[in-house]
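step 4 of 6: structure.
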Amino acid sequence: MTTTDPRPGSTGGADEPGQLHGGPDDDYSPEQLAAMDRTELDRLGARLDGVEILHVEPVAPIGSALDKKNTRLVTLWFALAGLLSLAFVVVFLGSGWFLPSWEWRIESGTWQSLYTPLLGATMGGALIAVGVALVLYVKKLLPHETAVQDKHDGSHFDRVTTGATLMGGLDNSGLPRRKLLVGVLGVMSLAFGAMLVSLLGGFIKNPNKGNPLGTTPWAEGVRLLRDDGTPIRPGDQQPGSLATVFPAVEGGDRAYDAAVMLIRLRPEQIESLVPAAGREDFGVGDYVAYSKVCTHAGCPVSLYEQETSRILCPCHQSQFDVTQGARPVFGPATRSLPQLPISVDEEGYFVARGDFPEPIGPSFWNIGRLN
Amino acid sequence: MATSTVPGPGAPATLVGKAAFEVDDRLIVAGPVRRTLNKVFPDHWSFLLGEIALYSFIMLLLSGTYLTFFYDASMKEIVYEGSYSALRGIEMSAAYESTLDISFDVRGGLFIRQMHHWAALLFVASIVVHLLRIFFTGAYRRPRETNWFIGVGLLVLAMLEGFAGYTLPDDLLSGTGLRIFSAVFLSIPVIGTWVYFTVFGGDFPGELIIGRLYILHVLIIPAVLLALIALHLLILVKQKHTQFPGAGRTEHNVVGNRLFPTFAAKATGLLFIVFGVLAALGGLVQINPIWQMGPYNPSQVSAGSQPDWYIGFVDGGSRIMPPWEIDLWGYHIPPVLWGALGIPGIMFSLLAFYPIIERKLTGDTASHHLLQRPRDVPVRTSLGAMAITAYLVLFISGGNDVVADKFDISLNAMTWAGRIGFLILPPIVYWATYRLCLGLEQHDREVLEHGIETGVIRRLPSGEFIEVHQPLGPVDEHGHGMLAYGGASVPKKMNQVGGARRAIRGFFKPIEEPAAVQREAEQEARGLESEQARRQLTGSGRPSEGGRPSEGGRPSEGGKPQQEPRA
């Protein structure tokens, strides 16, 4: 077989199909096919695809009472879908036009509260009705056909011939012989890959520059403010109460590491007070201040049960005892809540005496090695 | 050209036929289309679970695209002045504000948002149930390990995708979740702080994370999901479906319905039903009412904070982990690592490599296309039940504060129950499941050997009472059934073999007349009931032995006529 047409002026392509054309068209002439009815053709094509129709269970004959009943059922479900779709359009577009506005306000009425549920009911109903109609169609109006299809295992012929083509191509390229070229290609690929990966370097930030994990906005002389921005003086709080306070610096109330719980202990709590070693002077009178950031996973520890002197983190239920230097007494937390050293300034307001003596929040690899 | 003039016989005559001819003349698709239409799909309800996941994903793409037109992935702080008066004047991120606007100021926006959230929950749930079906029936065995691997990857990606989406509204609940996530990054040994600073672009929360999660959520992860789903389906089509053993089903064929029209219509029906259920949930059942949480504020949290269900087990692992922090000369490995990364890491690794582990342990390297009944592989089934138990303990522990609150139990007791339960319940469940599998296997064998219990008690001439058994096939000289177990369900009731009328329909109460069912059974051309009708017509009054249950398992009676002695 030649692939070039030798005639003068030819661009090289022949106008006849190649000899390897083949296929079912050689086995079945148009005349043979024209003589078959539709079922025969369907079965013939299926057989070519490895499919045999084993059994067809017919449905109720057309025009019979059962057929009419089934048709009516499927039609009804489709009709229901249409009606619900229309209802959706009416509710969706009609609101604020000929129906009351859909816009929900805290003070607004029933219609606004029903708007979203109505959308869900109508659209959901319409979609489910279409689905049900289709399933009923298959179950009641389509003949139940059981077919079997052959599963083919891998072909030895295909494996051998494909392997030959691949290995032949590799051999022709000469790569197995050209050792230096392959070596350089390998090194080049590594460098090339490194070039692409190095672009990710733009994401990397150094967590050890300026010790961000070991410091917070608290510093000597920074006042303790409530969330409304007012300073606090001793005696403002009832014994046994807790206030969340923030440092009086720019953005102090939004910093994730700055929130502090200022706790006024009850007299009986003071009796059992066991401050951490070297931190006996961190509090002021019956006041102590601890970081609000849980040392387990960083949630704000919020729930203070003054009866038991325990602070509970609502995320993973770590519990800290405020009379024992906020030591963890239950749950997965391992470190005490860091204590903020506080005192009172000349105007009588609470101030910090410095930053926390240790990093606040969850533990990390080099937490014990920060300066 | 020779082919453009149609040869005489079989030439298309109708308009549609001519159009189809024109298309095929250009694209040559008739062959591939016929092969596709003829593809046979096995017919079993459990094969539709994966489809539910696929349709939920389509719903996620559609509803998610809608939401992107209104959402603003910015952490810029603004003061809310929108229509939800309870939050007016409060500082919040633009992301949270735009989510509020979707909920209150976009017509139908709340509906689409809730539909999207429900679809995400259903997506992960249906993947999990689909995976369990594949696991317990052994469908992952050679040659389908690749697709199992892709499937586990899809599950992990779906969970990450869900978590990213859950975080986008930047409300108090999701912000707390993100804060916990940041602690998980921090807990990684050696590189933890670097990972943390890289992810957030500095210290938590920074100003980048919502924008980064957004592009992950709407482009990168969905693109990977889409590619993996396409690959999953391509491999499925190429390898063809597995099927349960049964009449005419072999390792070398698939028995079921052709794609067109039966399977296509059923699958489309299921798509509409899944969409419909999601739409109904999205409108009727409120989910994630972010306006009740308020904007994220690192110093606030609400009690009873719960993540979406599929993150619950990670949370549970963190909650029941004892406070064990490893301190190596000032270098720390905190317990968060084990609860939040260790347990899921081990779980998903075991899951992903299970086909290889099983192949190594059993030495079974053959290709399998017929599924196994869970009872027939007691070790695998028991391992699966054990894994589910461990997962459920973690999952319940993830909400142990809610359980403690609702049932008035001590919170610390719940934590301890989770710790102890995680260790001792899985082995107990393993043992119980193993015994259950053996019992079920044994009962199958017994029915094959002795026949089905008919409930008919007969008194022998000797005065002994026996229950009549119906053998399922030919019996040997001892009256024992000669059918071997073939891995298929064994009928255990007379109506499953046509020996009695079918069960009357109705879940809570019967929805049809027993008499009508009896009449229907008598009109059928098969089964004992039709015999009954004939007998009644002939009026003999006495059941003859035709079709009457024989006395399997009673060899001494085997040859005798089965007439009761008359008084």
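step 5 of 6: annotate
 - The first strand of chain B starts at residue 40 and ends at 41.
 - The beta strands of chain B are 40-41, 77-79, 91-93, 253-258, 326-328, 331-333, 452-459, 465-470.
step 6 of 6: archive
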